[in-house]
Amino acid sequence: MLDSRLQPDERLQPLLQRVTDDFLHGTPTLRVVFRSWLHPNGSHVDDLIRTKFLEHPDGKYVLPGLLAFEHTSPALRTLAREGTDLVLQTLRALYLIDLIQQRIPTDVLSTAIRKDHACDDRMLRAGIWVAWQLGTFLGGTGEWGDNWAKLPDWVNVREEILDYTTIDTPWTVAITRLDTAAAAQKTTAMESFAFIGDATLRSICNRDYADLIQLQGRGMTKPRLLLAGGIIEAVLLDRLLPHEGEIRKPRPLREQTLGQLLATAKEYGVIDEHLEHLIQTVKDYRNLSHPGFEQRTTIRVADAEATIAEQIVAILARNRPLTPGDISGTPVVTDAPFRLTSTINNPGVTYNVGLTVQSTSALPIAPVLAAFKYRHTDGRLALDIRGHWQYDSPGPTFANGSTNSLGLIYFRTDNGEAFSALADTTHEHDWSTNPTTGYELPRGDYDVQLTLTWPTGMHTWTIHLAYNGTTQTVELNITD
Hints:
3-stranded antiparallel sheet, about 40% helix
């Protein structure tokens, strides 16, 4: 069934199936033709391309995306999975014969597959096309001839194909990534860049970050660097625009390069020295869009650099004050973009009880504030504190899928002294003038309310803490 998050009209699913069938039979669909099928809702074609139900590689034709195979019909899903598995298994076997030769002719691939397996032209087309979309195992293909009607002459494998076993995990990882990004395109309540004042820049950041998520895990190092650099530049520009009247520079802010914006931001105190040093490490990657620069530069274009750039985006999203005034107007959300699990460690005589908080959002969320209310089982309030994030920076940042930890209580098993709870008062905003402080709680059972607050929402969980005085152990039960 087609993913409901796209909210298509009832005609959309059979039209996607038609596009997919036509491609598999070697008669791909022109974009303008598909748009005419959608009348009067022709703009749906852009939604389907953005969310990867359709691919639009040449500006002329629309081709089935991985999500079209996954969601349109069970038969197409089975065809694509089986065809892709045959293609990747066979490419791996052929590559093992000669590890120097990464470019494998398609006719050799086809002959090898059909020697031992029943594989018609539709399955072979689906397999090569989807294997390329998975991104991990193929470095590219030759040109699809006659406007996508003919298979490419060759397929280029990456050495990662040696790790291929079955289609199950790569398929699930790719579908999850694309489904999450598709949801992010439609979810405005979780916009991580809602703090950006300029509406155009905010729209650019949300669009580019959704694209950045789709590229992760596909080996797309250079595009990731360029997208992350663009987001960094947009955030810096937005921070400087309110000071535009007082900034005296030969070049207007909107015409400055990332390096120039960075220098201006440092000069006018818009960012601190630590963040300025981080951005310095990636600012030149914006120039990779110029082939001449890439040809003469010595900077590396590798996954590690792309990951650093992505983390700087998350730090920039976090690195702005969130005040009690912000929180007073924050909406309570029932479907929070976080998942909680308990963590209990008992090294020696120290007993640590905490929570692991994992982001389920496709976008970075930051800063996230934590507040604990410890109540006795009769409802009396025992302690009301700011939760201590076990994270070595001022205020936690959650990139997509990332986790951070909260300390709940700790105690020693070699004495009968009280529980300790650590309150954090050192976040980016001036909530309190006290330093990080430890508080004591009598040993016993507690109902603990955890409230997480982030720029676009807040949510409260209840954690029942049951203490066994005989064994000196703790059990946690988390309810949403």
